[in-house]
Write a structure and sequence with these properties.
Length: about 475
Amino acid sequence: MNKNIVCIGAGYIGGPTMAVIAKMNPDRKVYVCDINKKRIAAWNSWNYELPIYEPGLVDVVKEVRGKNLFFTTDIKSAVKKCDIVFVGVNTPTKMFGRGAGRASDLQFWEATAREIKGYADGDKIVVEKSTLPVRTAAAMEAILNEGRGKREEGRGGEGPRFTVLSNPEFLAEGTAIKDLLSPDRVLIGGPETPEGKAAVGEICDIYAGKDGKWVARSKILTTNVWSAELTKLAANAMLAQRVSSVNALAGLCEATGADIDEVARVMGADRRIGSKFLKAGPGFGGSCFKKDVLNLVYLCETFGLHTAAEYWSGVIKMNDHQQERIVSRLFKAMFNTLANKKIAMFGFAFKADTGDTRETPAGYVARLLNEEHVRLAITDPKAIENGKRDLAGLDGITWEKDPYKAAKDADAVLLMTDWKEYPALDWGKVFKSMRKPALVFDTRNCLDAAALKRLGFRVLNVGK
Ligand code: NAD
Ligand code: UGA
């Protein structure tokens, strides 16, 4: 078995994960492949205009690209060169047929399995990096090992043998490099067979890094494959559930005079609850929470666990409601008419420090405002290109790099993403350029509301 690694899928997961694996394993060659030529060209661009924005990523890519990290569209020769194959292709929510709107769409993933089988000329360890429904590894193994027969049964054993492991990724966008360099834990699920155990050992060695300098062995957790697959969905569902819980409480705070930031601070001081993921806001976005919770709902339904399915559906329902509530409150605060008013949306990415706009709350809110014939000026430090693609075809939307220009002559600023640039703006200057009365709706509670009020703004927050 050679030590080289190939990853199929050069997206938000494949790119950063493999860059850090290459950095921490200088004695291994790491190939990252994609069918998307434009994406690979961007990963290879001379001026490091990478296809995704992630703090610290450019530095890691500069360190290893061309040395032991290679981006390529030549999947065939990369698979031939490597005995360890990571699969990090997209697994979006299926939008057609059986399980539409809930199940995972596994077409990209299955195509990849067939590609690996077609190109492999030796035994391979295949590692699921994508987030997948429980028992996907069994399907993958069935496709990969189809027609081989079992050596021990004395019929066949011919052709490469594939051992499938699950190694879900827990990094969050915006902090990917930090999360990869010092993860809370690494999870590797494998079959409880001698080959399975040996394969798990190989992947443990990658995460331990050269000379054991990366992840401590105590943080590399191993389980069976099904536990690993389910843990990933469960972890995302638990995190999403916390956001929906705190947002459910935020509405009650607004109605009663309680303050959600105070409530969260005191709740979170209880070590049994913990302080993370208790920030009220516009609801969760991103490519994974919604899709993974829906996937869990579908799994529960499939196994006849209808009450559990309904329970997890509530997490999504609460999230949608939070975005609708933002528009209702804005509507009421702006005298029950939004038509032809100019609203400056500050931030379009689903969270700060990323240009990713998949499932961003700002997108949903923008569409609702568009239905009210609002003139929307959207600004974001990193997400304008993605945003333009998301909202293509909608009239009445302009995009501004400069937040001051976006706010000029606006009736309201609607802050949707907690970029650190926004609290640092000259809000006196913003106020002067706006129509009066000037409103700020800070859905992230990240601005100094008292200071804004002193400047003359009317201020709305979430949960207070
Ligand atoms: P992405 O869409 O950014 O990247 C996936 C890439 O796979 C695309 O570039 C696509 O062209 C490529 N691809 C699809 N089919 C292919 C094929 N047959 N051959 C070669 N390349 C192919 O998606 P992502 O955000 O990187 O997510 C990938 C997986 O990782 C998903 O299952 C997701 O749930 C999981 N995940 C994502 C994150 C995250 O922060 N984005 C975190 C943890 C887990
Ligand atoms: C999330 C998980 O945190 C990762 O562990 C996981 O690997 C990843 O999903 C995945 O599977 O893709 P990510 O979606 O990148 O990561 O970002 P988060 O930091 O989790 O934020 C998700 C959303 O929740 C954002 O819209 C964020 O603004 C929102 N959020 C988060 C809140 O509204 N309040 C909080 O307290 C925390």
